[in-house]
Amino acid sequence: MRLILLGPPGAGKGTQAQRLVDRHGIPQLSTGDMLRAAVKAGTEVGRRAKAVMDAGELVSDEIVNAIVAERIDQPDCARGFILDGYPRTLAQADAVEAMLAERGLKLDAVIELVVDEKALVGRIARRAEETKAAGQPVRKDDTPEVFEERLREYYKKTAPLIGYYYAKKMLSGVDGMASIDEVTGQIEALLAKMPATV
Ligand code: AMP
Known about the structure:
The chain is α/β, with parallel strands linked by helices and about 200 residues long. Helices cover about 55% and strands about 10% of the residues. Helix 2 packs across helix 3 and helix 4 (about 60-70) packs parallel to helix 5.
């Protein structure tokens, strides 16, 4: 099963992706996590991405597409994967389709977590508080100012993907404002209706 989780920052993509990993035994491919790992490791990609990420802007399609192309060839992706935070631009959407087509594969579904934009800023502030309370480092891009920029980037560059996948009849929406369990339930109900693929 090859799935895209779509939605603005703070919509709960990471949380739901993690649940899908546990239930379906396929990996979560979070480009945000991969880029943060590259920054931490001080690789060439990390060096190029750091300032852009700190500003809440999008890293170049070229960098992100290359990371994903490499990742999907890993053996743990053979049965499928959950794309979390990718694609984020129309160019990335075209790229992933081409990448999969080259390998004789295709996407099974795109699930949009539909959320109320106004609630997101509060959600992300809570995420920062909880992380701090747990004694863990807070993401630099979870500050209110940078978060606002990430939201702007989403509406400018990523939201057009909703129309793109809708037109391809691949888009399903779930209520991202419902409880975490309810959202998982809605996603599972959608997946249960899908033809089984590997
Ligand atoms: P995330 O953890 O998904 O919120 O991503 C954190 C940051 O990583 C984003 O604000 C971007 O700077 C960068 N990033 C993650 N995924 C992508 C992507 N698909 N395209 C461009 N930049 C990305």
